[in-house]
Design brief:
235 residues, alpha/beta, Rossmann fold, 6-stranded mixed sheet, 4-stranded antiparallel sheet, 8 helices, 10 strands, binds adenosine-5'-triphosphate
Length: 235
Amino acid sequence: MKLVLQEVSKAFGEKKIVKQTSFVFEQGKIYGLLGRNGVGKTTLFNCIAKDVWIDQGEIYLEEAGKKISYDEQDIGYVHTMPHLPEFMTGYEFVRFFIDVNQAKVQNPLPPNAYLEQVGIKSADQHKLIRDYSHGMKNKLQMICVILTEPKVLLLDEPLTSFDVVASYEMKKLILNLKMQTIIVFSTHILQLAQDLCDEIVLLHNHGLQEIKDQDIHAEDFENEIIQLLSDEGGE
Ligand SMILES: Nc1ncnc2c1ncn2[C@@H]1O[C@H](COP(=O)(O)OP(=O)(O)OP(=O)(O)O)[C@@H](O)[C@H]1O
């Protein structure tokens, strides 16, 4: 499976995000998306998730050389700021989520099994989501991803709110999903990108630029990225 961006353009008025950008993300790899603040990483994710329309070009999935259409249901999107029903408890939310996704969730386990899997202890499972920490809310979003096994997983700076143990657990979960999912991960933490990603992609000068994988662990990688992102290009 591949996620293909073909000649994609997106702008908000005068603010260009991408301009005739093409890129192919492949299943079995974790891609780290790096770019300066405000360059458009979240917008690009929103375009892939079909939350925001692109101005030109096409975004599609490809399997065995054939274009296949997809909808929002095929995309797992873990937002920086989670969108969750704050009036429910974590347990109620997972139960509700399983109910409304019955068609997709094969042989579901009880809600507490998923909550424990991401480290939400029984004492917290029946608390209102309103009272959850940012990291706990992100963990709930990860449960939705685990349950629906989306074709594409977009992670918008998700690990920044996790403590060291939770971050380690999340990395393991993400790595477990790697073989069956196309994973694109946006982060400002270079070390995290180096640890977790197979390829680094820069969103820069309205385009996507791949960094060759052998460079990721090179000693001067950080300097290389800083230099590339400091180059303002044309427009
Ligand atoms: N709905 C919108 N309407 C108009 N402008 C928008 C909209 N959404 C985002 N923008 C603008 O598009 C640009 C890119 O924003 P975006 O949030 O995608 O950047 P980002 O790379 O994710 O930033 P950061 O790294 O700071 O989180 C910003 O200038 C932002 O103000």
